[in-house]
């Protein structure tokens, strides 16, 4: 094996099954590593042939049965050479920003165990992140193993020394056509095997939301909250938001409002719940309450370093909502000011541009200029 003459020996490792359409883009992102290890778990397309064309890619094949994500990840990690210093786990629908290796080598220290970095999970139609996490799948070669049958995570067997490098950005471009029909059964199996594992309870509740099984989701989220002495306020707030969303989908507005307000009380310095509650009120034409909670949201001037972020709380969308709620409350000057902010943030959005022009004309009439 030939390593780049860098500060550290770096390897990417991944599991693959029928990823032929994603490989080229993924490889171009990952090739900054010295070597890339791929464990193919049963591709029936030409993924293996494509991967073998690249000079620094090593492909192994193994069928994992019965399927467990943690077993597959651990198997793929086992193929990584012992001489590697830093391991980078990635999926084929993920792409790093350029020069991620340079950033990694600049910040990694001899006693570092893992890195926390920015993970953009979803994007809007302008390719701006709408949901962002902190991820930890960059770690040293030894002492780590993967846990959990699904929604697996990597765990160190000692005392961690974690470094935060938000400048390293991994973007996720989910293939929504790819089947995930085994996720639900795996999560149900996980909760059945260990009914007190609150992480799997949460994940099962979230999966029920995907399947629109809202009553089942509510049951899981309420069960999760029984463990609130073991989980952070941020996690409690996230689950309360999901409870509110479940009730909203059942058209139970009263309970939805109740849980959004509980989420706000639990994590008062985070915009997400204020925004979500304001949008609920807006959709129900309660512009006064929508206005109140939007105003409370923008009072929070600093974006907290939290696990999940809804970018609509910080971009033009929140000001667009404010402009419309203020307009409906006949607060025309405020309406104009907020529509101008939204327009200046994103002048290329035709709907926002049209809103701005309508509100501007109305404001001029209000001032007697037209």
In short:
With 370 residues, this protein is α/β, with parallel strands linked by helices.
Q: Could you give a short account of the major beta sheet?
A: 9 strands, mixed
CATH superfamily of the largest domain: Tetratricopeptide repeat domain
CATH class of the largest domain: Mainly Alpha
CATH topology title of the largest domain = Serine Threonine Protein Phosphatase 5, Tetratricopeptide repeat
Keywords:
370 residues; alpha/beta; Spore Coat Polysaccharide Biosynthesis Protein SpsA, Chain A; Serine Threonine Protein Phosphatase 5, Tetratricopeptide repeat; 2 domains; 9-stranded mixed β-sheet
Q: Could you describe the 3D structure shown?
A:
- The chain has 370 residues and is α/β, with parallel strands linked by helices.
- It has helices at residues 23-30, 47-51, 69-78, 100-107, 181-193, 198-210, 214-225, 233-249, 253-266, 271-283, 287-299, 316-328, 332-345, 350-366; strands at residues 10-16, 35-40, 57-61, 86-89, 94-96, 114-123, 129-140, 144-147, 153-156, 162-172, 309-310.
- It has two domains: 10-110 and 137-162, Spore Coat Polysaccharide Biosynthesis Protein SpsA, Chain A (Alpha-Beta Complex); 181-365, Tetratricopeptide repeat domain (Serine Threonine Protein Phosphatase 5, Tetratricopeptide repeat), CATH 1.25.40.
- α2 links the parallel β2 and β3.
- α9 packs antiparallel against α10.
- It starts with 9 loop residues before the first strand and ends with a helix.
């Amino acid at each position: 094996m030939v390593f780049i003459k860098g500060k550290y020996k770096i390897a990417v490792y991944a599991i693959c099954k029928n990823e032929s359409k994603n490989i080229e883009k993924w490889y171009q992102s990952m090739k900054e590593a010295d070597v890339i290890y791929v464990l193919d778990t049963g591709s029936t397309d030409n993924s293996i042939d494509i991967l073998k064309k690249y000079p620094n890619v090593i492909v192994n094949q193994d069928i994992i049965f019965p399927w467990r994500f943690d077993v597959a990840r651990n198997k793929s990690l086992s193929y990584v050479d012992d001489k590697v210093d830093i391991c980078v786990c990635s999926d084929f629908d993920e792409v790093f920003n350029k020069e991620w290796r340079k950033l990694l080598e600049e910040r990694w220290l001899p006693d570092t165990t893992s890195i926390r970095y920015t993970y953009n999970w979803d994007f809007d139609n302008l390719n701006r992140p709408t949901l962002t996490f902190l991820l930890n799948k960059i770690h040293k070669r030894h002492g780590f193993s993967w846990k959990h049958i699904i929604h697996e995570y990597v765990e160190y067997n000692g005392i961690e020394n974690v470094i935060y490098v938000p400048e390293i950005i991994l973007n996720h471009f989910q293939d929504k056509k790819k089947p995930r029909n085994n996720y639900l059964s795996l999560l149900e199996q996980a909760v059945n095997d260990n009914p007190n594992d609150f992480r799997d309870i949460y994940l099962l509740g979230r999966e029920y939301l995907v399947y629109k099984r809202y009553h089942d989701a509510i049951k899981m989220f309420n069960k999760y909250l029984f463990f609130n002495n073991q989980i952070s306020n941020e996690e409690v707030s996230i689950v309360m938001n999901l409870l509110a969303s479940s009730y909203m989908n059942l058209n139970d507005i009263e309970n939805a409002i109740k849980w959004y307000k509980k989420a706000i009380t639990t994590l008062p310095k985070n915009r997400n719940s204020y925004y979500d509650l304001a949008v609920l009120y807006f959709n129900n034409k309660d512009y006064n309450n929508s206005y109140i909670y939007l105003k409370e949201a923008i009072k929070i001037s600093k974006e907290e370093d939290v696990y999940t972020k809804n970018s609509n709380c910080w971009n033009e969308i929140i000001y667009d909502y404010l402009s419309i709620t203020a307009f409906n409350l006949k607060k025309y000057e405020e309406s104009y000011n907020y529509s101008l902010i939204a327009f200046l943030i994103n002048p290329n959005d035709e709907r926002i541009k049209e809103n701005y022009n309508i509100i501007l004309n109305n404001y001029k009439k209000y001032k007697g200029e037209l």
